Amino acid sequence: MIIPPDPEKDPNVFNRTESSSSLVLEGLVDEDDDHSNAPTVPQRPQIPARARTSNHAFGYPFGDDLGLGYSGEALPPYERQRMEGLSSASSSNDDVFADPGSPSSPPLMRERTHIRPSLIIPGASSSTFIQPSPLTPLDEDLMTASTSTARLPLTAPSSSSSRIDPKLWEGSQPSAVDRHKTKQWKRWWKKWKKWIYVAAAFLIAGIGVAVGLLVGLKAARKTAPIPTRSPWQENDGSSAWVTSGESLNITYVPSRDGPGPLDGTLLLCPTPTPFNESSPLNLLSQPFPAQIQRNITFTFPLTKTNGTDVLTLPDFTFIARGLGSSGTVEIVGNDAPASVIAGGLEGNITVDVIAQYSGFQDLDSIIKVCTLQRPDGLGVGIFTPSQTDGKVSNAYMLNPMLLPSFHVVIRLPPSALQAWSQAPLVYSPSVSFELDRMAVRLGNLSNVAEFGSINVNSGRGGVIAEYVAAETVNIWTGANAVRGVWNISQAITVNSTDGSIYSNVILHDPNEADTTPAASYQIFEPVRRQNGNDGDDGDQDDTSSSGSDITVSEESPSSTETGAPPNATAPAAPFNPLNLGAVAEKMLHATHNISTTFVTSQGYIFTSYLQHPPRTSLTSLIYTHQGDVSVALHPNYVGPFIASNIWGQVRLVDPQPNTQNDPLDQGRSRSYILGPIDEVGGGLFERRGFNASSLDDSPNSISGVATWLNTTTEHTIPSPQIVQQTTQCDGEVLIMGAWGDITLGFNGESAMG
């Protein structure tokens, strides 16, 4: 084994003496060189015989003592770097084995056209050369070993192999480019490491928040585990707690299923009795063959108001709670069968609660029907279990045929429902329905009953009203339709989730008689100005038979151009048909306002205004998120409108050309004018984000005014703003739709045909 010498020691320890000759192998010799004048080759030094069988990679005395003759890669001592290039005269070409002070040996490789190996033995002087002699076998062996060790190829190297890899024992040292890149990286890291830390912190925090949200959402979707103990006190011990949840039996638990603090106090809870199968109430609801029916009847007396013939019922509330709160609650009108009407009691309100059940449990143990005492009046409540014995609270996961349902019939006095009767009117300040899953049906109560307010709140149930007269109506329901004829004097709000709305609206002004229905298209009676109306012109004569007999104050010329009201101090003059602005201002200026709102998240809306008092202004919002919308304004409506639609069209129906429908009986024609409008400060348009600038160039909204025009005398059509200023109309109609068409008419057509 060859141990390389220590490179830190003096390499001269391995140099030969100056008197000894060194062997240098020349790999490239020109065959054409002239050696005739070369000096005689001196006798070579004798090499020990032992070296002839040794590894001659470095020649004597560095041969391998084992004598294996290995001619592979040898390890020359003390060479720090490889030669950078054979053509450069660098220090790497110096012979580290030469004697000190002796000149370097000639280059070991030269490019020649013809090459052949030769052996040159330099003498003591660098200027003396000898003619090479023929090689002996020993010389060839030495030459081959030396050539392999010193990497002296016998052929010229290519230009691309001028750089040679470093020795294995010396290790690789980084180049200048690598050191430069390392410095650049350190400077860059020192400059930006703080920002990198901050970005990494934000990234980690964001990942943590995202993971937390995902885990929270997933946990929120899971059903809460069954508690280890009951959340209420079961005093009667009739309810069983089933942790596996397989029991679908239902049991009424008073502490859990009874009335809440706002529902009232239980007064009377009679036991249901078998229902008379021959009762005329079967005409309203025919039971199924497998159902058993039980009946409970309540009566509430009516009181007569002092000085009037009106029968008054205190505030009345009907409540239905729990899994079994399905069915219908109905107020019978004069359109009911005669036998049903005759079954009522005079002077009383009769409430029949009919329970229908086809399950196998005892009906008395799963329902509770009672009268309620409330701070605001009386009521009737139906209470059923809110959970099964297995703690299933979703009614839609249960078999509906195993749950009870109810048909509630509310009957007024028979005399009030007779068409020929002159019985007093029935009035109730408030009637409310708080239902989980029940529908409401109201019969034809025209000239039978009136209400201060009707409130319906049903989680899943529709509303049908043949005719209802009330000051205010509020309906909140879902997944079903709302249809009816509503006589309203203050406001109506219908909000349905996933349900359609069909409404015929009669606007009522209690301060004046209204004789302008729009149910038929006959000649309307003209609106007359009363004597001394508005506090001026008291010396003017009453109107008699024609609107042309109306006298008004004469306008100044400027008032006609500006649309300003006439001068009240001017002398009276015969009626001038051109002074329509003055007539409208004095006779049609609104003194009463009614608000209507019809909103559904998904469904159709059909609304028509069958009656509209001339002095009543209308504020109406009609909106559906998906479905068609059809609105018919009454001819008496004069004011602005906006129709906004997304993914749908807007259609404006041409008004009827019949000039006899003019409320002023002046032969004007019903018309509409499109264009930007002036919004009322704090009004419906402004609250919904509509103004003149946004409507002037809107991509999905159409605005204008509905009015009456005298086409025979008015040759130019005024702008909507001029109409608003002239008529001083305070109404606002806003229609908003999506995924459907909007149809707007101006003649009060019925929405239900």
Automatic annotation (TrEMBL):
Composition bias type Polar residues, residue spans: 152-163
Biased composition regions of type Basic and acidic residues, renumbered to the chain: 1-11
Compositional bias segments (type: Low complexity): 543-573
Transmembrane segments: 195-217
Taxon lineage: Eukaryota, Fungi, Dikarya, Basidiomycota, Agaricomycotina
Keywords on record: Membrane, Transmembrane, Transmembrane helix
Residues covered by region (Disordered): 1-58, 82-110, 152-175, 528-573
Superkingdom of source: Eukaryota
Origin species: Kockovaella imperatae
Name of the protein in its database record: Uncharacterized protein
